[in-house]
């Protein structure tokens, strides 16, 4: 059993810091929500590394919003629902497609500079979108530009305090209300931060896998701490593997944006043959899960570790202008996007599931909110539509801030005394344990799954549970405990879902089964696994 708290807690012995709003994590969700919330009161942003370290920073493609005259919310809704494979929450999608453009205007007011052509926004198209609706910045550096603008804005605001290099260990809850969090400072000392609202913006679970486009900080901390606190965790089996990350000796797994295929790139196997016509009528622009599994099939068939991405038939000028970051990055490793085929393979990219929220971003625990990749708002369903993640963060960030405005201050001082049966033995070899966990996830809970493999993976993961009886003191130990929690939740969700849908593919249940499985998997620390039917037709 995973305990309520990772550490022994005696709240009355900890120093207390009071703020109106506590934002855990940076990225677009944390920064945007903190800036908006600071218009109403004092905000504390806590990040375990720095404001510039988040998944948003690496987002290349852009942000999806209905801007063009030819586009409409109805088209955007339809594309999102199709990608989500029957599991999207219609109301959440409505909010996204109607409120996205206002959110984009907020970003522009906060200093984000999107690319323009002839005075108009330069809109591009990505996989599974029916229209050009992706705004981008500096070609393929959209995330970096958004984080740059929002970080500068946040740092300049009097109402926002930023704590870099601080680690949030646990949420503090009493009688179904969240009162704040226990935070470890860089020197190892701890304190209790108390607030009328706590917002998780801590990102996804990319580090569950050895190969990921996510930064080192994506260890699922928010999902794990919310689970320990008693929040509902939904749809964790739906993990998106990006089909094309650079796969080259000596180079990290660098994301090669969907937009490269959107602008006409071909996929070729090791023999140089285009192969997507054997898998989907949309060829290279099929949904991500289809493309990723097609690539894995080709790799297995040709006994290779990668396939090629080929955009050499497009003009050199267009490639360099549209993808300057990707072009420069590949060049560092002797690969020229304009003349070479680029070796790519799938890598873990995005967590569709997470902490279940309502349409105002609030969880089942009062005063606890979740925004961005850590949350499960219902927008993404079983598979996220490209570039909807940045829009989701701003749309629900705005909604959270509106909801917080109506919250009364905390009416009580929490008094928590929690001590678990811990054996006093420090945790050994965290780095090796983390690698072992990642190998289990790649082998059994990757792009293709089976009941037998998932069950074996689940048993192997459960052997690591005794670490919760150890005394944990360091950041990497907390991160490992959080990764293990998320790994167990993901595997349990995948084992329970006996069908293939969206990003979840079971070889023993290859068909989508709407009759039995058009529902969400919901996991709770005390109530275990439950299901949530989808009511609309």
Mean pLDDT: 93
Helix content: 25-40%
What is the CATH superfamily label of the largest domain? FAD/NAD(P)-binding domain
The share of residues in extended strands comes to 15-25%
Q: Tell me the radius of gyration.
A: 22 Å
In short:
By secondary structure, the protein is an alpha+beta fold. The protein contains 14 helices and 23 strands.
Q: Can you walk me through this structure?
A:
By secondary structure, this protein is of the alpha+beta class. The chain has 2 domains: 9-238 and 352-405, FAD/NAD(P)-binding domain, CATH 3.50.50; 239-349, Alpha-Beta Complex (Flavocytochrome C3, Chain A, domain 1). Helices cover 32% and strands 20% of the residues. The chain has 14 helices and 23 strands. Strands 2, 3, 9, 10, 11, 12 and 19 form a 7-stranded mixed beta sheet that branches. A 5-stranded mixed beta sheet has the order 20-18-13-22-23. Helix 1 links the parallel strand 2 (16-24) and strand 3. The longest helix is centred in the C-terminal third of the chain and has 22 residues, at 475-496. The radius of gyration is 22 Å and the shape is globular. The chain starts with 8 loop residues before the first strand and ends with a strand.
Give the tags.
five-stranded mixed β-sheet, FAD/NAD(P)-binding domain, 537 residues, seven-stranded mixed β-sheet
Give the secondary structure arrangement, pairings included.
Layout: E1 9-10, E2 16-24, H1 27-37, E3 43-46, E4 63-64, H2 73-83, H3 90-109, E5 116-117, E6 120-121, E7 123-124, E8 134-135, H4 142-156, E9 160-163, E10 167-174, E11 177-184, E12 190-200, H5 221-229, E13 233-234, E14 239-246, H6 258-262, E15 266-268, H7 288-301, E16 307-310, H8 316-322, H9 324-332, E17 342-351, E18 354-356, E19 368-370, E20 375-376, H10 388-405, E21 417-418, H11 430-444, H12 451-462, H13 475-496, H14 514-517, E22 519-524, E23 528-533
Parallel strand pairs: 2-3, 2-12, 3-9, 12-19, 18-20
Antiparallel strand pairs: 1-21, 4-8, 5-6, 7-8, 10-11, 11-12, 13-18, 13-22, 14-17, 15-16, 16-17, 22-23
């Amino acid at each position: 059993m995973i305990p309520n708290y990772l550490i022994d807690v005696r709240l009355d012995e900890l120093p207390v810091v009071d703020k109106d709003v506590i934002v855990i994590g940076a990225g677009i969700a944390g920064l945007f929500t903190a800036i908006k919330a600071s218009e109403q009161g004092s905000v504390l942003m806590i990040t375990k590394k720095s404001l510039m370290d988040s998944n948003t920073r690496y987002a290349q493609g852009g942000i999806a919003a209905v801007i063009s005259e030819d586009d409409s919310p109805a088209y955007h809704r339809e594309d999102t629902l199709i990608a989500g494979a029957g599991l999207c929450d219609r109301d959440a999608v409505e909010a996204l497609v109607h409120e996205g453009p206002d959110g984009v205007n907020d970003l522009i007011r906060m200093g984000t500079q999107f690319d323009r052509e002839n005075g108009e926004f330069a809109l591009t198209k990505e996989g599974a979108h029916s229209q050009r609706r992706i705004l981008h910045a500096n070609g393929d550096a959209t995330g970096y530009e958004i984080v740059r603008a929002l970080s500068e804005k946040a740092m300049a605001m009097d109402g926002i305090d930023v704590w870099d290099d601080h680690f949030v260990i646990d949420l503090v809850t009493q009688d179904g209300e969240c009162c704040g969090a226990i935070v470890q400072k860089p020197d190892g000392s701890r304190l209790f931060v108390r607030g009328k609202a706590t917002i998780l913006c801590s990102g996804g679970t990319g580090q569950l896998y050895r190969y990921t486009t996510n930064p080192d900080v994506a260890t699922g901390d928010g999902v794990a701490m919310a689970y320990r606190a008693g929040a509902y965790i939904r749809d964790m089996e739906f993990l998106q593997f990006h089909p094309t990350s650079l796969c080259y000796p000596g180079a990290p797994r660098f994301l090669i944006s969907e937009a490269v295929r959107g602008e006409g790139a071909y996929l070729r196997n090791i023999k140089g043959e285009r192969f997507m016509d054997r898998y989907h009528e949309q060829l290279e622009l099929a949904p991500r899960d289809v493309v990723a599994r097609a690539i894995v099939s080709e790799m297995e068939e040709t006994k290779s570790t990668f396939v090629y991405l080929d955009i050499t038939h497009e003009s050199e000028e267009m490639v360099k202008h549209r993808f300057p970051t990707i072009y420069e990055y590949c060049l560092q490793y002797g690969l020229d996007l304009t003349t070479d085929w680029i070796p790519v393979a799938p890598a873990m990219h995005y967590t569709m599931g997470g902490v279940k929220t309502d349409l105002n971003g609030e969880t089942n625990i009062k005063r606890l909110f979740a925004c961005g990749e850590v949350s499960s708002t219902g927008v993404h369903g079983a598979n996220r539509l490209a570039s909807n993640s940045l829009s989701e963060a701003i749309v629900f960030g705005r909604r959270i801030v509106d909801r917080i405005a109506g919250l009364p201050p905390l009416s009580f001082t929490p008094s928590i005394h929690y001590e678990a049966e811990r054996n006093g033995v420090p945790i050994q070899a965290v780095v090796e344990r983390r690698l072992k966990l990642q190998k289990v996830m790649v082998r059994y809970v990757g792009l293709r799954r089976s009941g037998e493999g998932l069950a074996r993976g689940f048993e192997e993961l459960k052997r690591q549970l005794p670490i919760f009886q150890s005394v944990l003191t360091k950041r990497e130990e907390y991160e490992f405990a959080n990764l293990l929690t998320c790994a167990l939740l993901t595997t349990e969700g995948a084992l329970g879902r006996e069908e293939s849908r969206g990003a979840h593919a079971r070889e023993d249940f290859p068909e989508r089964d709407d009759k039995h499985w058009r529902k969400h998997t919901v996991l709770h620390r005390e109530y275990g696994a439950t299901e949530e039917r989808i009511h609309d037709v």
